[in-house]
Amino acid sequence: MAGEQVIVAGGCFWCTEAVFNDVVGVSGVESGYIGGNVADPTYKQVCAGETGHAEAVRVTFDPAVVSLAEIFDMFMGTHDPSQLNRQGNDVGTQYRSAIFPLSEAQSADAEAAIARWNAGHDGAAVTTIEGPAIWYPAEDYHQSYWQGDGQRNPYCLAVIPPKLMKLRKSFSERVKS
To answer: Across-strand partners of 29?
Structure first.
């Protein structure tokens, strides 16, 4: 499978990771931290809002199967890009809605995706386009969290299934069976 990567932050990385792990054409999703000012941040530092990083995911996908525009539309459609520095009960800049383009083309596609979302939602997105920035993978226990411990975590059980339902409802042709 050919691979292109994109980095997005939509609140809790466990939630965003769970969404993209269900997308046809996605071969990998890695949780991590980006956009801050501390080298090698820890989960504890990021959650405390001490580093400026966002919880984010790096999605590897095959653009012959799922386009970058579709990836961005799924991102915008499965979290609330109108909430500034929060997603639900998760509050702080570490939970901001942001896209970290890895190229000028990705930056242009990100702008177009935000504009598409705004056209259908009264122009309310606060999603930022940030970067370039250094990517730091999260600790191992955060990777594929929903597939493991997350399905026993009350927070995940409350937050992730509604996001997966949004994915299935709006992007059913792109969901793994």
So the answer is: 59
Q: Which positions ≥6 away from 163 have C-beta within 8 Å?
A: 15, 18, 19, 78, 79
CA atoms within 13 A on the CB side of 174: 28
Phi and psi dihedrals of 18, rounded to 5? -60, -40
CATH of the domain at 92: 3.30.1060.10
- Structural domain that includes position 84: 4-170
Residue 81 in tokens: 């890009």
Answer whether residue 175 is part of any domain: no
Q: Are 56 and 159 in contact (CB under 8 A)?
A: no
| Per-residue model confidence as pLDDT tens digits over 52-74 | 999 999 999 999 999 999 999 99
Among this protein's residues, is 12 annotated catalytic?
A: yes
pLDDT band at 2 (very low <50, low <70, confident <90, very high): low
Enter the pTM of the model: 0.95
Q: Is the dihedral of CA 5, 20, 151, 79 positive or negative?
A: positive
